[in-house]
Design goal:
Number of strands: 15
Radius of gyration: 22 Å
CATH topology of the largest domain: Aspartate Aminotransferase, domain 2
Bound molecules: D-serine
Mean pLDDT: 98
Largest sheet: 7 strands, mixed
Helix content: 40-55%
CATH class of the largest domain: Alpha Beta
Strand content: 5-15%
């Protein structure tokens, strides 16, 4: 594998070799990342990338799409089966364009969009002023409860009844608890809103039957395909049949041009993997690992936002260690533990500094790690937080992380020299 690349472009090859070594030797705890299978990688790096196929299966603007149609139809059928959806569009290039297309389908410019604030666990595309969502739509942000740091459905309902948004959005990137989509549906029905969910983070846990499925309750659901779902980098939109035409038109010709059919083939492969019983065991272990990591961190003095997790994700307040999220991320990086700095609810720090770090277990669970390893890793994370300025100590921790990772090898079939 990759012999041609090595010969033709040693510069790119060398960088790729170093990146593979980094992935092998480090503890990847960024909750929005994962490790795809070799079949997914093969589909991604395939001849499907050569084809233009604007339009949809059997309604293309280019000839020669017989086999592309078969691949895209397979991805759609598998996604429908995975989530019980009436209609699926697998063409969105990533999460942000998927959300944009969903808004185009459901709203006119200036309509009200009610979503969770970014620094409370939402996303830029859920209505932040610097993002298109905050510029094109009238934003009604909701917050988590200041005491419990959890969603307060009664407060969300009161705000929704006052503001009457066109779209009520249940979407989260840094919220560690399960979501009551049935309650969100009741609120949407009462205030006359469309209900949309962005399940980019939890899609794999939903497909793996460990968390509530929002599809039966929502008008539209968007998700990326590369996080807990463990597919290629990309996205999809699932919706009720009544929105199918509007969604498809919003994606193409509304927003995108030619779909990336190599990625769509890889999505089909990943969806088939997620339909297997083993994937349910994987999703269960992701959550068990997150809980175990949370317990190990809490035992050593870390304050977890909401006190713990129901999902793959943990949000830690690092202020007890007299350190910012930025400094914590950087120190952990030096020890080969990858996390991302993240605002916590009501964070006094700026988004580039933050008081928190966000962690998750999808990647390490794919590697085969279990609760015992999470306990070890929790201890190492706290060792780093306590010694963030001590270069020698960080080097020692890095050795321990390396030894742990070597016990759980990845991509052994890929030999890069
Ligand atoms: N960047 C994604 C995440 O890490 O959650 C959201 O877009």
């Amino acid at each position: 594998m990759y012999g041609h690349l090595k010969e033709a472009d040693p510069a790119v090859y060398a960088i790729m070799r170093r990146e593979l070594a980094r992935q092998r030797e480090g503890a990847e705890l960024i909750p929005s990342e994962n490790l795809v299978s070799l079949p997914v990688l093969e589909a991604l790096g395939s001849v499907f990338t050569n084809k233009y196929s604007e339009g949809y299966p059997k309604k293309r603007y280019y000839g020669g799409n017989e086999f592309i149609d078969q691949s895209e139809e397979l991805a759609i059928e598998r996604a429908k089966q995975l989530f019980g959806a009436e209609h699926v569009n697998v063409q969105p290039l990533s999460g942000s364009p998927a959300n944009m297309a969903a808004y185009f389908a459901l709203m006119e410019r200036g309509d009200k969009l009610m979503g969770l604030k970014l620094d409370h666990g939402g996303h830029l595309t859920h209505g932040h002023p610097v993002n298109f969502s905050g510029k094109y739509y009238t934003i009604v942000p909701y917050e988590v409860d200041p005491t419990t740091e959890r969603l307060n459905y009664d407060a969300i309902e009161a705000l929704a009844m006052k503001e009457r948004p066109k779209v009520l959005l249940a979407g989260f990137t840094a919220y560690p608890r399960d979501i009551d989509y049935k309650r969100f549906r009741e609120i949407a029905d009462r205030c006359g809103a469309y209900l949309m969910a962005d399940i980019s983070h939890t899609a794999g846990l939903i497909a793996g039957k460990q968390l509530m499925n929002p599809v039966p309750y929502c008008d539209v659901v968007t998700t990326t395909t590369h996080k807990t779902l463990r597919g290629p980098r990309g996205a999809m939109i699932l919706c009720r049949q009544q929105h199918a035409q509007a969604i498809d038109k919003a994606v193409f010709p509304g927003l995108q041009g030619g779909p990336h059919e190599n990625v769509i083939a890889a999505k089909a492969v990943a969806f088939a993997e997620a339909l297997k019983p083993e994937f349910q065991a994987y999703a269960k272990q992701v959550i068990a690992n997150a809980k175990a990591l949370g317990e190990a961190l809490t035992a050593r003095g870390v304050r977890l936002v909401t006190g713990g997790t129901d999902t793959h994700l943990l949000l830690a307040d690092v202020r007890p260690f007299r350190i910012t999220g930025k400094a914590a991320e950087s120190a952990l990086d030096k020890a080969g533990i990858y996390v991302n700095k993240n605002t916590i609810p009501y964070d006094p720090e700026k988004p580039f500094v933050t008081s928190g770090i966000r962690m998750g277990t999808p990647t390490l669970t794919t590697r085969g790690m279990k609760e015992g390893e999470m306990k070890v890793l929790g201890g190492l994370i706290v060792d780093v937080l306590e010694n963030a300025e001590n270069g020698e100590r960080l080097k020692g921790i890095r050795e321990q992380v390396l030894a742990l990772c070597k016990r759980f090898p990845i991509y052994s079939e890929i030999q890069l020299s």
